[in-house]
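Appendix B: a complete holo record

For completeness, this appendix reproduces one full record from the ligand-bound portion of the collection. The bound molecule is pyridoxal-5'-phosphate. The inputs are the chain sequence and the ligand SMILES; the output is the full three-dimensional arrangement of the complex, encoded as structure tokens. No fields have been trimmed.
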Amino acid sequence: MNQIDKRKREIEERIATACERAGRERSSVQVIAVTKSISTERTEDVVRAGYTQLGENRPEGLMEKGAHFLKGAVDWHFIGNVQSRRVKDIIPHAQVIHSLQTLSVAKQIESRAEQVIDCFVQVNASEEDSKSGLAVDEVRPFIEQLQSFEHLRVVGLMTMAPLTEDEAIIRQTFRTLATLQREIEALQLEHAPCHFLSMGMSNDFEIAIEEGATHIRIGTALVGSESEGSL
Ligand SMILES: *Cc1c(COP(=O)(O)O)cnc(C)c1O
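The structure of the chain with pyridoxal-5'-phosphate bound, as generated:
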């Protein structure tokens, strides 16, 4: 068994336990394997291990890996900061964008996409100064502005929790996002069904699952970190 298979087994156990604690079905949580720190070659191991939903945070990584894998074999999730001028590089490869937060990027998507792109709106739910994402009270007006956009569907909200050992702070951040997601879902906007919650990473995905995450983005726990060397 290679390292990725071994780590996958550990992660699956942790997901199953968290789902059980939360009274949720395992199938209600989708894992996005974040491959941003590994080569295309090692990404093949991730795909061989059975992951079909992969995440990249830089256009370069997405373009290289997106071109490498057969279209349809994997879905690419773009999870990094999106610049307007890079939208043209991202949308040929990405099925989902997790980090929409500006109208200028939305306009680029609208004018360049040939099919509907599923987007999560990124929220600074912890309200840290340094964090990207819209402030909580900016989210609804932002989404309402996208009503006439035909190539963009707001499928959910995304956040990153603060880097802290304090579980209560992490949990509160996820709760804030979940509350906001339910509020927007309840508006029943055609362009923004907003059913999903993209939250939880290697260090906090169990808390995220307990708080309702539907998409967890896992990098290090699956692929290791640079400093660990080769697998
Ligand atoms: C890198 C990254 C992840 C994965 O982080 P890990 O801690 O390595 O699991 C998830 N989401 C975003 C937005 C990232 O940039």
